[in-house]
Amino acid sequence: MGLFGPADTLKVSVSVWPPGSNIYLGECLLLQCTVESNSTSVWSYHWSRSSSAPGPAPNPRHLASGNTYSITAVTRDDAGSYRCQAKSNKSSVVLLSQPATFSLPLHSLTLTPSNRQVFRGQRFTVRCPVSQSNSPGWMLRQFSPGRRVRKRVLHTDWCSPLGGAASADNSDTCVFTAARGHSGLYWCEGAEGRSNAVNITVSYGTIILKTPAFPVTEGDSVALHCQYWTGNHGQTTFFKNGTEIFTVSSSSSVVTMTVDNVTRGDEGFYKCASRDRKIESPESWLSVRPGRGQPCHPKSVDGYIHHSHLVISVKDAQ
């Protein structure tokens, strides 16, 4: 009697974490190779990759360990097809999975300047991705609590439904002069999917904290800018999650706190205030994504979804 039944009763599949077919730039990706068999055979695994743009070898963000393959902080250089080969220790049976193919559409909304908070009257621009096909243009959407989702089809109505004006240089860019109705969440939608999203707060107060609108990478230096509308307030205090972390004396209307070699522990809600705390900014979230040297550590593999052929769309992170 053979060790296995007919060859077609054996199946190798690839599963992905996090669940779903859309992976965003900067996320951790974990592939798992699974052999469906009633045998007690022990399997050894080998991973291979094909790519149109070869990167350095070995890549420190890529780690193959047994039946798992992890990619930390996904970038566009990770595009390509990944295969798993499983070999039994009890026979010559070798199974080869279908490829897991990474496609990376340019689904990136751009905000300029890249800050979550702006003063009323200041200008900011929102630009939707460049279409990668002959499909209709992108639709810029905005949502504010208590309001309906507002939308505008780029290239057609000059941003007017959202209270903006089309850029003279780029027809896919909306230019806004910040007003109360411009606070909210912005994203783009089109035939190619949805872009990343960004939350913008328009302040009618006298102080704001400018933090990066999108996630920063571990190991980077991050500057947080506390900006006063007018006046010199002598001392400025910065807070994280409500706790005072830094006080600086300055006569400038813009006071900066720099976080060197940022880590995931630096994530949180930040705000700044005058020393007497008579004026303080709204809180602003600082998001930090894994750096090149940080491995992926999924909490559980119970939620894995299995594919014999897996197509993963990688989009820009928020």
From TrEMBL:
Record Pfam families: Ig_3
Gene3D superfamilies, A to Z: Immunoglobulins (2.60.40.10)
Top-rank lineage group of the source organism: Eukaryota
Residues in Ig-like domain copies: 6-103
Gene Ontology molecular functions: transmembrane signaling receptor activity
GO BP terms: cell surface receptor signaling pathway; immune response
Keywords: Disulfide bond, Signal
InterPro entries: Ig-like_dom (IPR007110), Ig-like_dom_sf (IPR036179), Ig-like_fold (IPR013783), Ig_Fc_receptor (IPR050488), Ig_sub (IPR003599), Ig_sub2 (IPR003598)
GO cellular component, one term: external side of plasma membrane
Disulfide bond in keyword set: yes
Protein name: Ig-like domain-containing protein
Organism, scientific name: Mola mola (Ocean sunfish)
